[in-house]
Design brief:
heterodimer, A: about 550 residues, seven-stranded mixed sheet, 12 helices, about 25% helix, globular, B: about 190 residues, mainly alpha, 9 helices
Chain lengths: ~550, ~190
């Protein structure tokens, strides 16, 4: 019997598609190349108990994968650098059941109306393929609302004056604000900015059978031990409860089998290392904006836009030191406050754009945060006689506060994902090669907004501040790696109405194939400055409802 | 008894760790935390069943709940391959060399400890520090593992009785209690 759909990838996009389709009566097989640490192996309708407050396991030892020894990626800034300059971790998002949703700290902002019409509203940028999306915020709003309810988002309607309109309130109120964020928000307000409680998919109250977050602090880069984070465990447990889904973990799809305009199924390698085939009526690809184009390329697909326009969110990082404060960033949800001001045009940003010779600049969501992990602090502290006292004083953790701006990357055709000519994964397949560097827009926006954020930290009382970025542009002489730290990967199979310039149509269906749909952030036309998760989940829900002929609930 | 290192290597490692994170004026150091045991346990992870790579979850028992950290996860076929590559190196085994040879942690430690010298435990602190700094790559490797052994979960063999966390005022893992809203939002 042929299953209705094979879904490749069990992260937020794949999980959402699976939940919508099984609810509509479809049978699906979810193939996930990573291990299952999310769902109880004895009852896949319940969460597992594998996650923990363990910095060694999650940060040092790749518990959520991918392990760069067996699944590396290659990186270079540009083709002029040769085949690659780095092999190993590159924008790694967990390779595990639940995908990127498992390690994210759960900030899930919606995009705003103008994010879907950048070309029409702001105009082009030289060297970048700035374009409008083939859909509007109005079309996506019902799906935003549906998935916010499904995963459980805590937030406060009206808190953000720049937010897009909503058809209803958030499913629950925000959780407890972190002490540092209370102080940084007050300073930001004094400087004329508009901080607000970050919309977060971590329960502030018991919700949908999962408990309220208890502020353990092991949020960003960790799986939640009590499953207060709803994405995507809420979707996967519901999917499995329908009885219409098979979850195949440790199952690597190596090839989509294509005949003419149709995919007939996939070739996959199971946990035993044996290659097999499976047929399906539909193939839904949800591997993320690096693994999805890799698989399509491995499957022989060709399109001039496939693998192009990779965007990662150029991160501007400003840090302040507070000798008189203990900010205890290890308590709470990692990030409880954000502000959107850097994405709103004002006189100062227009002047900064003009100074840089650009028509406009847009920054990104600014996260108010600190770093709460002791091993990470120790690694940046000197060894020797003063080590213990340095750690006790905690100048690099407990007395620091930071703003991280997830700056909007423009879609440059020269930032790409393709197949490495020489590096292989453990199964013998070419790995993804990322070619990425920021352009003039990202650098100008970072420089402009970084200075503003430093001034907010000074208003907050910082003894000193620094302003740097990821990847590798330093404003204070500390060179960083050219490999982006960002885990937001976007673009590479953009959507559009024109099959010659876009890979998928407005429903995520591959133009050249009648039964292959992409359900992840690959399809984004532009990156906005918001984390991509909620938007990719809403798009996946929209695509799945379109396939099933159903409406959002 | 060390798990994987020889007695002589273990003695040098202990001295090197103590130089990196010395006990000082009441502050616990690598000795009190058992940092050398953490590293030795990692190097000998595959002498245990399951291998001591990933501690269990969701709770350690230190704050309540079951003491599950001590029950280590079983590794999949590919997990084991990756961790044997990382710890043992590729050793000319074709399955481990799909992107070329890999030098494992065991070999890096063995050669790094040889370079520190048989007399490392006898020389003074200044000379120990000079020798450590002479091999920047080994020094960085050792420092990273010292940090993990000092401030990681005790189930991995270091941070004995949580001395690293205690000294810097952290509780470490806090499930199933977490922190109250007042603790989160107040000074």
């Amino acid at each position: 019997m042929t299953t209705d759909a094979i879904i490749i990838g069990s992260g937020p996009g794949g999980s959402t598609a699976a939940e919508v389709l099984t609810r509509a009566g479809w049978s699906v097989v979810i193939m996930e190349k990573g291990r299952n640490h999310l769902l109880d192996p004895n009852d896949l309708t319940k969460p597992a108990a594998d996650y923990s407050n363990d910095e060694i396991k999650f940060i040092s030892r790749y518990f959520l994968g991918p392990d760069p020894l067996i699944e590396p990626r290659a990186f270079r800034r540009s083709a002029e650098e040769g085949e690659h300059t780095h092999v190993g971790e590159v924008n790694s998002i967990p390779t595990t059941v639940g995908g990127g949703g498992t390690h994210a700290d759960g900030k899930v902002p919606r995009f705003r109306e103008e994010d879907f019409g950048l070309l029409s509203i702001h105009g082009p940028q030289e060297g970048a393929h700035v374009d409008d999306w083939p859909l509007t915020y109005e079309e996506l709003e019902p799906f935003y609302a549906e998935v916010e309810r499904a995963i459980g988002v805590a937030g406060r309607e009206g808190a953000n004056p720049f937010a897009a309109w909503r058809s209803g309130p958030y499913p629950m109120a925000p959780g407890a604000p972190m002490y540092g964020a209370v102080l940084s928000s007050a300073a930001a307000e004094k400087m004329g900015l508009h901080p607000y409680e970050a919309p977060t998919a971590a329960n502030s109250v018991a919700y949908d059978g999962r408990p309220a977050c208890n502020n353990c602090g092991y949020c960003a880069f960790f799986g939640c031990p009590i499953h207060a984070k709803g994405d995507p465990v809420a979707l996967l447990t519901k999917t499995m409860a329908t009885g219409r889904a098979d979850l195949m973990a440790e199952t690597y799809v190596s090839h989509i089998r294509i005949e003419g305009r149709r995919a007939t199924g996939v070739d996959y390698i199971g946990p035993d290392g044996v290659e097999r085939k499976m047929d399906a009526k539909w193939i839904i690809v949800a591997g993320g904006a690096i693994e999805t184009p890799r698989l399509l390329l491995l499957s022989g697909m060709e399109h001039p836009a496939l693998g192009r326009h990779l965007m990662v969110h150029f991160q501007t990082i400003t840090v302040g030191h507070f000798s008189e404060l203990r900010l205890h960033p290890h308590k709470g949800r990692a990030v409880t406050h954000v502000h959107d001001d850097a994405m709103v045009q004002d006189e100062r940003s227009r002047a900064a754009a003009a100074e840089a010779g650009l028509p406009w600049i847009r920054g990104g969501l600014v996260e108010h945060s600190g770093g709460g992990l002791p091993i990470m602090e120790a690694r940046h502290s000197p060894w020797g006689r003063h080590h213990a006292q340095t750690m006790r004083d905690s100048n690099l953790r407990d007395r620091m506060w930071a703003f991280i701006m997830q700056g909007e990357d423009l879609p440059y055709p020269t930032n790409t994902v393709d197949l490495s000519p020489s590096i292989r994964d453990v199964r013998g397949f070419p790995v993804a090669r990322v070619t990425y560097q920021p352009g003039p827009h990202e650098l100008a926006a970072s420089k402009h907004h970084g200075k503003i954020l430093q001034s907010v930290l000074e208003e907050m009382g910082a003894d000193w501040t620094i302003h740097t970025s990821s990847p590798g542009v330093s404003y204070h002489g500390v060179e960083a790696t050219p490999v982006p730290e960002s885990r937001h990967v976007i673009g590479t199979a953009r959507m559009g109405d024109d099959p010659t310039t876009s890979v998928v149509d407005r429903w995520g269906r591959v133009h050249a194939l009648d039964n292959v749909v992409v359900a992840d952030s690959s399809v984004f036309v532009t990156s906005s400055g918001y984390g991509p998760t909620l938007t990719l989940v809403a798009l996946a829900a929209r695509a799945a409802h379109h396939l099933a002929g159903t409406e959002p609930s | 008894m060390p798990v994987w290192l020889t007695e002589g290597e273990y003695a040098i490692l202990r001295a090197a760790c103590a130089e990196m994170m010395p006990s000082d004026q009441g502050a616990p150091g690598a000795e009190e935390a058992g940092v050398a045991d953490y590293i030795d346990t990692l190097l000998g992870a595959f002498t245990f069943d399951p291998p001591r790579i990933w501690a269990g979850g969701p709770t350690s028992g230190r704050m309540g709940g079951e003491a599950r950290f001590a029950t280590f996860h079983r590794l999949s076929r590919l997990d084991e391959l990756a961790w044997r590559m990382r710890i043992e190196g590729s050793q000319g085994i074709p399955e481990r060399e799909f992107n070329g040879p890999v030098i494992g942690l065991q070999e890096r430690y063995r050669s790094g400890l040889v370079a520190l010298g048989d007399d490392f435990t006898q020389v003074d602190g200044k000379e120990r520090r000079r020798r450590l700094r002479a091999d920047a790559e080994f020094c960085e490797l050792l420092h990273g593992h010292c940090c993990e052994g000092m401030y990681g979960a005790p189930e991995y063999g270091g941070n004995r009785n949580g001395v690293g966390w205690d000294y810097i005022g952290l509780k470490g893992d806090v499930q199933p209690i977490g922190y109250s809203d007042v603790e989160v939002s107040g000074p």
